[in-house]
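Morning!

As promised:
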Amino acid sequence: MRQVSFSYPDAKKQALKQINLAIEEGAFVVVCGQSGSGKSTLLRLFKRELAPYGERSGEILYKGKTLESLGERESAAEIGFVLQNPQQQIVTDKVWSELAFGLENLGLEKEAIRLRVGETANYFGIHSWFRKNTDELSGGQQQLLNLASVIAMSPKVLILDEPASQLDPIAASEFLAALKKLNEDLGITVLLVEHRLEEAFSMADKVLVLEEGSVLKYDTPQKVSAFLKHHAMLRTMPAAVRLFHACSYEEECPLNVKEGRAFLKKHFTCGKKAEHKAGKYKPKGEPVFELKEVWFRYEKEEPDIMRGVNLSIYPGERFFVLGGNGCGKTTMLYVMTGIYKAYRGKIFLWGKRIKEYSTEQLFHNHVAVLPQNPQTVFLKNTVREDLEEICLSMNKSREESRQEIEQIARKFGLTPLLEQHPYDLSGGEQQKCAVAKMLLTKPKVLLMDEPTKGLDGEGKEVLAELLKELKEDGLTTVTVTHDVEFAAENSDRCGLFFDGEMLAVTDAMRFFAGNHFYTTAANRMTRGLFEGVVTVGQLIEICKKNR
Amino acid sequence: MEQGIWGRFGAFHPVVLFVYFASLLVLLIFQFHPVVALLGLSGGLPFLFIIKSGSKIKKMLLFYLLFFFVLTVTNLFFTHEGQTPLFYINDKPVTLESGIYGAVMAALLIAVLIWCQCMQVILTSDKILYLMGKSIPRTALVFTMSFRFLPLFLRQMKKIARAQKAMGLYAGDSVYDKAKGGVRILSSLIGWSLENAMDTACSMKARGYGIRGRNDFSLFRFRKSDALMLALILVLTGTVFLGIVRRDITFSCYPAVSTVSFTLPACTAYAAFGILTFLPFLTECRERIKWKHQKENIHDERVGDATGIFFLPGCKKTGA
């Protein structure tokens, strides 16, 4: 695949401007850039079948031929594309038929399909769930299946648009590892857009940074990280890179935890304990929520999801519940609010049994739950209508609701979005609108389910800011997440939900400093070198002191 | 899907299964005959028991008994044809013939129901799709996609309902609130579906859907055993059919109950039908016996080996 040069004028401004790019065969290229920088547009242009409508100038060459001159079979088979959402890409109901789908389209012989499907399933370790229904799979398995069914067509180039953003960290790193393996074993050229740079960055042969539709830098990870020293994108770089830039040494930049550790050992006197506010946070007052020995299961015959959970949440704190996918964190949120009924144990809200609140009492003025997918929050055609609906349900007059909406929109900077369709917003914007909608019910406790899912670095920052504001307003927030880095930066207290129980409920610093695996990159990097470092900020601070 | 050790019959090729169920059901529906009804029932029930989980069988049997009783009695009191009055209600005769007709009809109906239940377990969606795919591949793809989409749709519906409830919207207990909430959720679901369909369409297109010369793939293979089974089914069905066409087996209730003939050709037809209905059950039994045998063989070999070692050189020497 050689030299690409095009510009792509859209309705108002150009989404991509005069891009020249050459990607060598067999390269692993990571594309990054802030949202709206044209990453997705660029990727889709490489795949003729998915190219967005619009005017394009310049030309894209694949192996010296323009994309347009490729045969449709060649184009479909040789350039594979994996999209962001694992669930919606799956076409058929059985795993095996999904694997065969692309091959069927190419019109291969039956025996050839059989062999290729078998081969692929084996390579990806899918054989154990080969005959399952596709809707029984976990998110990680689904995305692996999507990858496998593209690979079954034996592509030369693989293009992936944020494939791991909907997965939990463990599934995501497995997925990335599978990509790396494909790249190394089969020499497939990989073009990957990814927010989670902590891992992807050091895998890449080259990193392409886009900014507002043009190429900011296209080079090796080393050089790109050096280049980004004073750029806003630095915040999204791996912890090691950020440390390196904060300390300014003249040498190769460390890219991952391993290199970061070597770097620390070489340059700093280790063994000091971090002096931060560890343990300073103390919960105050009477608990808002109290769970006492709560047990829950969906059906009589099914296993318990909560086994005697004890938990107290105090007013005004930002509490985080961490845990792997499918461990029952979400279920716990809904049990807490009484939407699912616990079969044993008691749940108190302000000292009163949750059962004694009527649904309306509970969800007006007391508690609100932000579901995982903000799309389930919106039912109307514009954001304004959705917000109005809530106000009316709170028995407000039209005039009052108008004012309140204006107020909250101004506060969150949503005013320009009010007339848009909720589905047309970006992930971060959707999340903000959803929170705004929740806040109109005037809750004192806000429960959030995986709010960072699918958000890029920027979106997460907005969310973090939001959490801080809510805390200042005196709201108690309970957030369920598997995003360790986010939890470390933004929580007062944390707990790990595992095997139906809440483990290690303590203040955030102690929580992450005490964990071995379930902790931040900064903590893993400093394990045994500096004690009690959790966030990158702390890491940089302690390093500056101990040169 | 997989029925473990009881899965031999279901493992035949879909075409074989289809032919089997089709011919059996056609015979049951169109041949009004007590022996056919009896054989249909007695062949179908044990097979159903072994392929369905044990818990619901008692309930099912009870239901069928009740069903049988109700049908028979209904026919008894509502049909007044026939020559042999048992007693009179409102000057209308209640006849023996209508009772027997009702009973045979009910037995046949239940047999059909039982076999339909068996079919539901054995002829899974993927097999039906395969059969359809042979003749109408486009439609078959639409069906797989709907099979895929339906659970997603239901799940999303639950999620939305939960989310809305947690915001205190339509959370009231009144019917009006619930109905209104339902309509709103449904309309948002349509939006969601369209949104998702976009992604699915992209993924299909990216994998070359729409290129001419699409081929249909399935995991099923037509083996030698499938051919044998198919031949057997066809021969048996043919024999029964011949018996029907030649009027070797006929039965009527009105005006009088005809005698059930037991001539040689009639018996041949009954036997053929009997084998046909017991075919799945016998297949499973044979499989089970084979397994048991194999286990015993393995066991025997082990014992043999052990004794062999025991009696080998050392013993001989001491003997000598």
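Chain A has 21 helices and 20 strands.

Hope this helps with the figure draft.
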